[in-house]
Amino acid sequence: xxxxxKILAGEIPCHRVHEDDHVLAFLDIGPLSRGHLLLIPRExxxxxxxxxxxxxxxxxxxxxxxxxxxxxxxxxxxxxVLQNNGAEAGQVVMHVHFHIIPRFPDREQGAGLRVEWRAxxxxxxxxxxxxxxxxxxT
Length: 138
Ligand code: AMP
What we know:
Blueprint lengths: L2 H6 L7 E4 L3 E5 L9 E5 L11 H22 L3 E5 L15 E6 L22 H11 L2
The structure holds adenosine monophosphate (AMP).
Adenosine monophosphate binds next to loops.
């Protein structure tokens, strides 16, 4: 059980933006920019890979609508959708969540998010790697 279970149960207050039978979206308490949202499933699972298809589908169905809404409401021309999946990926609250982070032309308005992207090169075993991932899909 995490703090998000308490939010789902109404035991801890939050600013609710959207909810249905499967999901809840609310304002992040420590926003990286104005309008920073969290989207969570009601299902209590730590990582995306553990989720049921129903929860996953409900998240996917509402994500584009939330992106459009937060951009329309804040005037942001863009947003990042970020999903920290596991402690090594920076996840702190162990209940699946998507961050929706509006981005603004003025860097100061979105100063809380920096993405470092140090790209490597796809090497010789790419075909085997792709096959191995395909074979591992369940
Ligand atoms: P992560 O590092 O991806 O696990 O992000 C957890 C997020 O949950 C952080 O952005 C926190 O600011 C946010 N958070 C933690 N507690 C609350 C809360 N009570 N209400 C809203 N957001 C919260």
